[in-house]
From TrEMBL:
<dbReference type="Pfam" id="PF02770">
    <property type="entry name" value="Acyl-CoA_dh_M"/>
</dbReference>
<dbReference type="GO" id="GO:0003995">
    <property type="term" value="F:acyl-CoA dehydrogenase activity"/>
</dbReference>
<dbReference type="InterPro" id="IPR006091">
    <property type="entry name" value="Acyl-CoA_Oxase/DH_mid-dom"/>
</dbReference>
<dbReference type="GO" id="GO:0050660">
    <property type="term" value="F:flavin adenine dinucleotide binding"/>
</dbReference>
<keyword id="KW-0285">Flavoprotein</keyword>
<keyword id="KW-0560">Oxidoreductase</keyword>
<dbReference type="InterPro" id="IPR009100">
    <property type="entry name" value="AcylCoA_DH/oxidase_NM_dom_sf"/>
</dbReference>
<comment type="similarity">
    <text>Belongs to the acyl-CoA dehydrogenase family.</text>
</comment>
<keyword id="KW-0274">FAD</keyword>
<protein>
    <submittedName>
        <fullName>Acyl-CoA dehydrogenase</fullName>
    </submittedName>
</protein>
<dbReference type="InterPro" id="IPR037069">
    <property type="entry name" value="AcylCoA_DH/ox_N_sf"/>
</dbReference>
<dbReference type="InterPro" id="IPR009075">
    <property type="entry name" value="AcylCo_DH/oxidase_C"/>
</dbReference>
<dbReference type="InterPro" id="IPR036250">
    <property type="entry name" value="AcylCo_DH-like_C"/>
</dbReference>
<dbReference type="Pfam" id="PF00441">
    <property type="entry name" value="Acyl-CoA_dh_1"/>
</dbReference>
<dbReference type="InterPro" id="IPR046373">
    <property type="entry name" value="Acyl-CoA_Oxase/DH_mid-dom_sf"/>
</dbReference>
<feature type="domain" description="Acyl-CoA dehydrogenase/oxidase C-terminal">
    <location>
        <begin position="249"/>
        <end position="395"/>
    </location>
</feature>
<feature type="domain" description="Acyl-CoA oxidase/dehydrogenase middle">
    <location>
        <begin position="132"/>
        <end position="227"/>
    </location>
</feature>
Amino acid sequence: MTINLELSEALQQTVERTHLAAEHVLRPISRKYDLAEHTYPVELDELAKVADEAQRQAAEKKAAEKQNGASVSGAASTDAGATMQALLSSLEMSWGDLGLLLSLPGRGLGNAAIAAVATPQQREKFAGVWAAMAITEPGFGSDSAAVSTTATRDGDDYVINGEKIFVTAGSRADHIVVWATVDKSAGRAAIKSFVVPRESPGVTVARVEDKLGIKSSDTAVVRFEDCRVPAENLLGSPEVNTEKSFGGVMQTFDNTRPLVAAMAVGISRAALEELRRLLEEAGLEIDYDRPVAAQHAAVAEYIRLEADYEATYLLALRAAWMADHGRPNSAEASMSKAKGGRTVTDLTTKTVELVGTLGYSEELMLEKWARDAKILDIFEGTQQIQNLIIARRLLDKSSAELR
């Protein structure tokens, strides 16, 4: 499989725009909202408007090209790939602040679910919503097949009952994508995802969590009690197909896990840049032409961490490229996410250690990045779950054969 890792002009523009937003909007308020947990970052509203306008203009340009009969090759030059664009945007914005990225209106994890499995009509219906994603329940964590929240068909509606925990932006998003079973006896094949307006009768935000990191992003417990949603809010096909299991809803992760890897790359790069600055201020030169063993121990560690960072970046690019080209990428998505979570936690913790007391203090952002990083090794499937998925794909084993 040959992949061109050179970014197109359209992708370069995405990187430049989002980096400017991260540098001039997110970084300056990063510490402010880290210290003011549960306070909504109002500065994000204007940023979201700018992002929406840029997205609208890009869509209009693409539509105009098609209408004018642009050649296939010419159209491809401006259609950079939705997953790759989202990945690069996530990377740059996480360099600014991960929690603020997760709080940006209209950019929720549920939006990725809608993009992954919704029908064209549903994509049009839910265009412009801000959707959180509700999967985890009090009775399970990474085993998505253990969903106990129910969705019972009643006429033209589904009635949803259950409780979801650790819902990112669950108290702020205007919609929530809820995983529920339409038939418990059918097992995982009956698990579907539903788009539920947060203000619907029967939806209650029961609690907002206090957390180790990403404090600017609210994480909520959401309860559903006889909550009615129209049948057309079930994403994708309502058919319970035991042969396909719940591959449809799981496709969401194939899109979102590379984005989590990109978030890890963004924080890793921020920490590496700060570490390099401090090493150079201390008079330590990073020389790539000399053997690592012949350099200062701190420099040798920096080079090791930088290599892990580069590997994560390349794995994330590959997974996103495959998604945009219609290639099955479940293993690659898990590889990128597993490597990203492991790298960013190791890298940020080691950076705090190398810098010493300054790294542990709030004078620099290093301690904050170390706290923020840990969630990237947990949500969207833990490190252990990713390794299990990778093993299943490489060994061609089912979940029943390898658990």
